[in-house]
Write a structure and sequence with these properties.
The protein is α/β, with parallel strands linked by helices and 669 residues long. The protein has four domains: 8-73, no CATH class; 77-280, no CATH class; 284-397; 406-600 and 628-640, Alpha-Beta Barrel (TIM Barrel). 41% of the residues lie in helices and 13% in strands. It has 25 helices and 18 strands. An eight-stranded parallel β-barrel has the order 11-12-13-14-15-16-17-18, surrounded by five helices. Residues 1-17 form the signal peptide. Keywords: Signal. GO terms for molecular function: oxidoreductase activity. This is NADP-dependent oxidoreductase domain-containing protein.
Length: 669
Amino acid sequence: MRTRALRLVALACICSADDSIPIGLGDGSTQRLQLGWFPRDTDATEAFCSEYSVSSDDCATLYRHVTAKRDGLGRFFVAATDQAAALPSRRLFALLDGELMFRSTGTSNPGRNYPGMWLPTAGICPWWFQQPTEGRPRSFAEITDSATALRAGAEQRVFDKRFAFAYHENEDLEAWAALRDDLRGMAATDGNGRYAFDRFTSLRQLVASIRLGREAWVNAGLGAAADEVLARGAAAGLTTDPVAAPRSSPIVVAGLCEVNDFVTSLRVHIIGWIAARRAICTPAPALLVAELEQLTRQARGAAAALNGASQTAAMGAAVARGAEVCREVSIAGDATGACAFPEIRADLSAYWTHIINLARASGAHDAVDAASQAVKAVRSAANADGRHLVDNARHLVKISVPVEYRASMPSLVYGTAWKRDDTERLARRALAAGFVGFDTACQPKHYDEPALGRAIAGASRERLWIQTKFTPVGGHDDRRPYHVWQPVEDQVRASFSTSLANLGTDYVDALLLHSPLETYELTLRAWRVLEEFHAAGSVRTLGVSNVNFQTFERLWNESTVKPGVVQNRFYNRTGYDRDLRAFCKNHGVAYQGFWTLTGNRNVVSGPVVAEIASRLGKPPVSVYYRALMQLGVVVLDGTKSMDHMREDLEVSDFELDAADVVAIDRALS
């Protein structure tokens, strides 16, 4: 086992492309440390020093090397993508001399002809900005109303490469045009490489690009032009020394709002972003509710038409538009009149999903539930044989509708902790016995998450309820799914990505913080990442484990997506969390108890449970579990016996009298 009492005895800075330095430790081992930490150099350094008990003087030396490396190179790198984007949408970014650049992968249209070349960018902007059709905004500056902002934020997949002018303005456009023409004339061929200059708006951007990667310019037949750019840059007083760019980055920023905020924090000005941000990222709840009500009306009308029924029958009441009452609905795309069902274009599917996610995050649960039920009605009606006749209704079927998964959480969940090499065999046994809920964690110290993934691989994902956890640094041994020097946000992302791969799924029903982190600030930062997963649909319910009431209540009050699960040790040392359980009951939070048998042997084998079990002819454990369930506790069951598994699952077949539940509750004291 690695000792934690280590001292930093040697430190050297290797300024090479791998961007790491070797740290010689007191036990003779060497730890290679990735550099380029930003913006949390202090956090990453302190985490490393704490993990290895590095002295304060040596930690200060380490911090000086880290910051000197970053400041000396004068640039910052970040792999930035939106939450839903798949590779190669993830890009490597650099901030050099005030210019934000991205390295082209050669796969997207604007960068296809010059792979590896660094091009100017302003972060991620919606796809709308690259489709400048009539009525659509072409920059943030053109977003002047809330409705346009909602649509601008709905699709955030494409990096903004065409609108570099949004953060850099040339004072002398004629001089820039003349320089660009001169450089084009130096191209070795008449190929598309000559048009690389159309992507730049200043000499400074060109110099930054060549400093970061001159080889790509040479490969594009622009070597002579690159030399001319550097010469003119030097004459203008710009730094022209080459910069060794790393191959990867430890930082990932996700989401339209997060990325553009991050770009803005680097003092890169995106014209119009600050004014548009509020409407795009935190729109008024009233506007979201109004949009959802429109979706609800459209969906119910579509369901009615698909079923051949009147709109009134589908909605339970007449729908008035102005002075006219609609009792029948037409869904033809070109229909006219007050009772015509409006066309639902395919591109609205992403928009409606976006609105639903924003509304749920804002707390507009009633409107979300109504819209969700209406869309479900379309899905049900679309199963009819004539669904292919109704193209516009089919687009509604594509909408991702959040489902209240807490209602489907089983009252008995199979816990896989401490099963070690038996995890797969026992999970298969539990599945065969009838368990549909499984609890795990991305914590190899106590769980074998990949083994659970193998056990459930052949089962229908829709009928399973899968819960995993992010474990902070202190809960791990050496087998962590992330690096201790990473910011906590990246630790959470790395852990969850590993969990999805381990479990062979693209979503989990619940993701929990295994415990609060070292400080409440870190806990809240980790929770914000969980909220991102929830908004993206990869996590249905969020929660926290091993938490006291005070911390949970604070998290509840300060979170955007409220916790839906609390998982705590159920025993008398905490007073069985009576106050916390009452809070959970009043706020619709599922309370999960573990150690329910181990911590309460005296109750399970005591006279109260024995008398009830004898009278009902039930096993004592079944009676005890049933009482907990009626008290609002979701029980984590870790039995290894197939007979006990089946026996425990039978608790749903009977119910205790209220007096028996009260008696068992009193015994828990």
